[in-house]
Design brief:
Largest sheet: 6 strands, antiparallel, barrel
Number of domains: 1
Helix content: under 10%
Number of strands: 9
Distance between the termini: 44 Å
Order of helices and strands: HEEEEEEEEE
Shape: globular
Length: 101
């Protein structure tokens, strides 16, 4: 069976995806995520996104508890909603908020 998550490494190497590091895990190598930022235009420039969210291969982070701190692009975020699997479960999405100091 074809696994579409195999493209994530290529997306990362071309700057189309970022690496998320779990700050609570010493030596974490992280996992590749698609990152949606506020005020980003989507759907043919007709819709603005309103929430921070990542999409990632479920097998890369099968458990991502609420409150988990992730560093993405030098900024630390916290998972603020239970991640949810998409479609057949190959990918999951997690809502984020900027971590307060």
């Amino acid at each position: 069976m074809f696994d579409p998550s195999v493209f994530l490494a290529a997306f990362e190497s071309h700057g189309l995806a970022l690496r998320a590091l779990r700050t609570q895990v010493p030596g974490d190598v992280g996992f590749v995520v698609g990152f949606v930022q506020p005020e980003q235009l989507i759907l043919g420039d007709s819709v603005h996104t309103a929430a921070l969210e990542i999409e990632y291969a479920t097998t890369d982070a099968p458990t991502l508890p609420l409150g988990t701190a992730l560093t993405i692009g030098g900024v630390t975020y916290r998972v603020n909603q239970q991640p949810r699997k998409q479609g057949d479960g190959t990918f999951s999405r997690a809502a984020l908020e900027v971590a307060r100091a």
